Amino acid sequence: MKHIKIIDLLNNTKTLQEVTAKGWVRTFRNNQFIALNDGSTIHNIQCVVDFENTSDDILKRITTGAAICVKGTLVESQGAGQKVEIQVTSLEILGDSDAEKFPMQPKRHSLEFLRENAHLRVRTNVFGAIMRVRSVLSFAVHQYFQQKGFVYVNTPIITGSDAEGAGEMFQVTALPLDGSAPKNEDGSINYKEDFFGKQTNLTVSGQLEGETFAMALGQIYTFGPTFRAENSNTSRHLAEFWMIEPEVAFNDLADNMDLAEDFIKYVIKYAVDNCADDLKFLDERFAQEEKQKPQAERSEMTLLEKLNFVLENNFKRVSYTEAIDILKDSTPNKKKKFQYLIEEWGADLQSEHERFLVEKHFKCPVILFDYPAKIKAFYMRLNEDGKTVRAMDILFPGIGEIVGGSQREERYDVLVEKMKALGIDEEELWWYLDTRRFGSAVHSGFGLGFERLVLFVTGMTNIRDVIPFPRTPQNAEF
Ligand code: 4AD
Ligand code: MG
């Protein structure tokens, strides 16, 4: 008999049928009650073992972590909190699990411990829920853009360009590492002779390639892994993360903001509607975590309230210049405690400034736009004032920057001049400049850090806990 997923068994209204279920034992109580989980849902199904007619050898092997197959009758459950359970008629151990050695004991583990066991942590309720929500959010991303007629583009992972110009790239060595690679006179590797004939990196962003496709297909999006060799050991940065980058021909900055806000609301709503059980569980977990914090630091809203708040309110659109004025006004010198917030026009905003604006001042998601040109990337459209660019960052409560985007500089001459000033090689980016040579047009796009979105939706606080196998400095175990 084919086995049935536990989520389908639990939603089943027809009892008294013969069923087969397969999964992993979470707990085994009183030699009788198995809590079985197969990953299809946060909920376990209770399997009641007829221990008098089951051999001691089998009973001993029903341990936490073991893979089993049960056959039996689906009956109404007497226990609280579950509608049905399986009265087991036969039970097979598919894979034993040594109870002494299995790291995922049925108790609360610290997140640090679980991170060290990324291959097994997904067997816990928390990580099962997070990974299902992540999967549903991925689907929602594609659904949103596909419904709107965007073309999904796979931009290269190995690339010769540094889209963000920040130099935080992982180099790809397509050369033997045994010392036999061709060298320059100074001993450095001679990339001219390597597999690609030039130095290549793992991509930091698919934007530049995405732009070339937008200038032909109109509306495109990418959704793929991106890599940053920034040595920032924070709870918001990963060395390998997933980014969604839409790019739209003929969109200006205001259109770009509209698209980003509509998109974010759509995917969050999709998760709220389609991950009810997992989000209810994560909501309860969030409440427990908040209780551990001092009163003053606790969230005023539950996780689900936070999600609904984002859905129901417009993001506040504020120019960089207005934001600086707010920061200055909020920091009278007398009040020492806010002194650090004072910023001068032209400075890049630090995360404490962003958090102040979002969490203390506006208390809602904020779209900051028109940043000083000198703190933003070369490809952003220069404003008429000659000193700001049509950039936008979306800041989220508890997360900080979740989106970075802009209207792009479509004027060939202005772009070339900017590249010259920044020392960016025109010849390297000849193909990018072609978009401005042939049929250039106003266009805009943005990048949403997928893990930051998953962080927000799941109420987790460390980005390492929302990606299956986190890549961070000093962490490449898996
Ligand atoms: O602001 P960023 O660097 O923008 C770009 O890469 C543009 N090319 C996007 C575009 O316009 N098409 O990165 C975009 C987003 C950030 O807002 C953040 O959410 C996320 O990517 N991000 C990271 N997420 C996790 N770990 C990191 N190290 C990240 N760096 C950026
Ligand atoms: Mg950014």
From TrEMBL:
Q: Which CDD domains match?
A: AsxRS_core (cd00776), EcAsnRS_like_N (cd04318)
- Please tell me which top-level EC class this enzyme sits in: ligase
Question: Which is a Pfam family this sequence falls into?
Answer: tRNA_anti-codon
Location of this chain's protein in the cell: Cytoplasm
A GO biological process of this protein is: asparaginyl-tRNA aminoacylation
Enzymatic reactions: tRNA(Asn) + L-asparagine + ATP = L-asparaginyl-tRNA(Asn) + AMP + diphosphate + H(+)
What range(s) does the Aminoacyl-transfer RNA synthetases class-II family profile domain occupy? 131-468
Q: Does the keyword Chloroplast apply?
A: no
Q: Which GO terms describe its cellular component?
A: cytoplasm
Q: Which UniProt keywords apply?
A: Aminoacyl-tRNA synthetase, ATP-binding, Coiled coil, Cytoplasm, Ligase, Nucleotide-binding, Protein biosynthesis
| Signal peptide residues on this chain, from the entry's feature table | none
Q: What is its EC number?
A: 6.1.1.22
**PROSITE patterns from the entry?**
AA_TRNA_LIGASE_II (PS50862)
Q: Which GO terms describe its molecular function?
A: asparagine-tRNA ligase activity; ATP binding; nucleic acid binding
Q: Which residues form a coiled coil?
A: 272-299
Q: Which domain of life is it from?
A: Bacteria
Q: Which PANTHER family match?
A: ASPARAGINE--TRNA LIGASE, MITOCHONDRIAL-RELATED (PTHR22594:SF34), ASPARTYL/LYSYL-TRNA SYNTHETASE (PTHR22594)
Among HAMAP family, the record links this protein to: Asn_tRNA_synth
Family, per entry: Belongs to the class-II aminoacyl-tRNA synthetase family.
* Summary of subunit composition and partner proteins: Homodimer.
Q: Which NCBIfam families match?
A: asnS (TIGR00457), PRK03932.1 (NF003037)
Protein name as it appears in the record: Asparagine--tRNA ligase
- Organism of origin is Flavobacterium haoranii
